[in-house]
């Protein structure tokens, strides 16, 4: 078996060992203490690092810190999938001790869904990055999407876990690598982007670019919605805000605080991106737009999945579940589906028009210009 096939298969099989490890730990009385749970998680993640490291160094003869990171995360992704399945009652006696002495806030709808997302989408993204790396192909775009997805999950999960109704447990610190290492990966990907090139061609104004104009309208609307909902979850006094949370999105008032922190993420982090996108649409030629559109697409996908499904999940009190029919349901679905679908359309649009929002075509244009000048000199 070729190394490019052997290593992804080996890491896939390694990730499946999380199931027997979780079952074994669940049978130990020692796991009734939060310190023991924290130490067990630390040791497990450390050991899960050794096999991928050996495989990349000794079999593939090359390694990459980002790919090594996602290889370890693949192991924990299967733990998270098991947690989600056990929380919803599909399996039992897997790792129930972790809900009590590890991260009790996972008992919530948001906690359940973030585990499903981690065990499926982020697991798939991680395996895709490993496969591409082993085949000596670029995994940068997949990596940027993965960075956006995992960072949004942590931006919401950790504050919600600390400031929510559940007691603080040491195991919340096990999430530290899931913040620091994706940040490192994001810095690495952004640094690898080509330096800004001055575009040779001039672009039409926004009034002559109908698709860009529609995206501009969307981002202006997204800015308004983000500010409105952020103020609403901060107990805004306006009657419109009170009516909105009561009628259209009561899940915003959930005492777990996860919906609140997701709205604050929109009101602060996402808002900066929206403003940057408006600038890039008005003044094309910004080579960073494509990268950030990919990061934002990943973040919006993770955030909206957890929020939308969480708002109708059985763990959410019936009085706080979002309406799914009638005019209130139409408002809820229109806003929240737009916030996840349009970012992906914009990402694809940026990839298609990298001469306007990326860097590849700008560099290529410069090279083409040099070739043209060279031909002119030869003549």
Description:
The chain crosses the membrane at residues 36-55, 67-85, 105-132, 144-164, 170-190, 211-232, 263-282, 294-310, 330-349. This is Transmembrane 6 superfamily member 1-like. Residues 63-186, 211-347 form the EXPERA domain. It holds the Pfam family TM_Tm6sf2. InterPro entries: EXPERA, TM6SF1-like, TM_Tm6sf1/2. The chain is an all-alpha fold. The protein folds into two domains: 3-191, no CATH class; 206-364. The chain is built from 15 helices and no strands. It has helices spanning 3-16, 18-26, 34-59, 65-87, 97-101, 109-134, 140-163, 177-191, 210-233, 239-247, 258-282, 289-311, 326-352, 354-357, 360-378. Helix 1 runs parallel beside helix 4 (65-87) and helix 6 runs antiparallel to helix 12. The longest helix is centred in the C-terminal third of the chain and has 27 residues, at 326-352. The chain is flat.
């Amino acid at each position: 078996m070729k190394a490019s096939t052997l290593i992804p298969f080996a890491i896939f099989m390694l990730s499946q060992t999380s199931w027997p490890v979780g079952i074994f730990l669940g049978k130990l009385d020692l796991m009734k203490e939060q310190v023991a749970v924290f130490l067990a998680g630390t040791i497990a993640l450390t050991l899960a690092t050794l096999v991928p490291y050996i495989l990349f160094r000794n079999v593939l003869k090359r390694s990459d810190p980002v790919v090594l990171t996602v290889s370890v995360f693949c192991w924990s992704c299967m733990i998270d999938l098991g947690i989600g399945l056990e929380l919803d009652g599909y399996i039992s006696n897997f790792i129930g001790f972790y809900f009590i002495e590890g991260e009790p806030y996972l008992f919530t709808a948001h906690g359940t869904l973030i585990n499903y997302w981690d065990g499926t989408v982020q697991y798939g993204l991680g395996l895709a990055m490993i496969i591409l790396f082993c085949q000596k192909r670029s995994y940068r775009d997949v990596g940027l999407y993965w960075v956006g997805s995992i960072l949004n999950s942590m931006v919401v999960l950790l504050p919600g876990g600390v400031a929510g109704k559940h007691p603080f447990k040491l195991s919340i610190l096990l999430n530290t690598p899931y913040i620091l290492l994706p940040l490192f990966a994001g810095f690495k990907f952004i640094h690898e982007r080509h330096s800004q090139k001055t575009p040779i061609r001039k672009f039409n104004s926004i009034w002559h670019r109908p698709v860009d104009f529609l995206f501009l309208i969307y981002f202006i609307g997204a800015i308004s919605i983000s500010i409105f909902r952020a103020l609403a979850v901060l107990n805004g006094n306006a009657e419109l805000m009170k009516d909105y949370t009561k009628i259209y999105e009561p899940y915003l008032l959930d005492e777990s605080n996860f919906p609140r922190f997701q709205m604050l993420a929109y009101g602060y982090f996402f808002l900066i991106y929206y403003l940057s996108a408006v600038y890039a649409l008005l003044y094309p030629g910004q080579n960073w737009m494509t990268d950030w559109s990919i990061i934002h697409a990943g973040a919006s996908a993770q955030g909206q999945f957890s929020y939308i499904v969480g708002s109708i999940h059985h763990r959410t009190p019936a009085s706080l579940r979002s309406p799914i029919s009638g005019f209130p349901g139409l408002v809820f679905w229109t806003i929240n589906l737009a916030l996840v679908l349009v970012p992906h359309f914009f990402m694809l649009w940026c990839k298609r028009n990298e001469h306007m929002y990326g860097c590849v075509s700008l560099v290529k244009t410069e090279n083409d210009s040099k070739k043209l000048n060279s031909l002119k000199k030869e003549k």
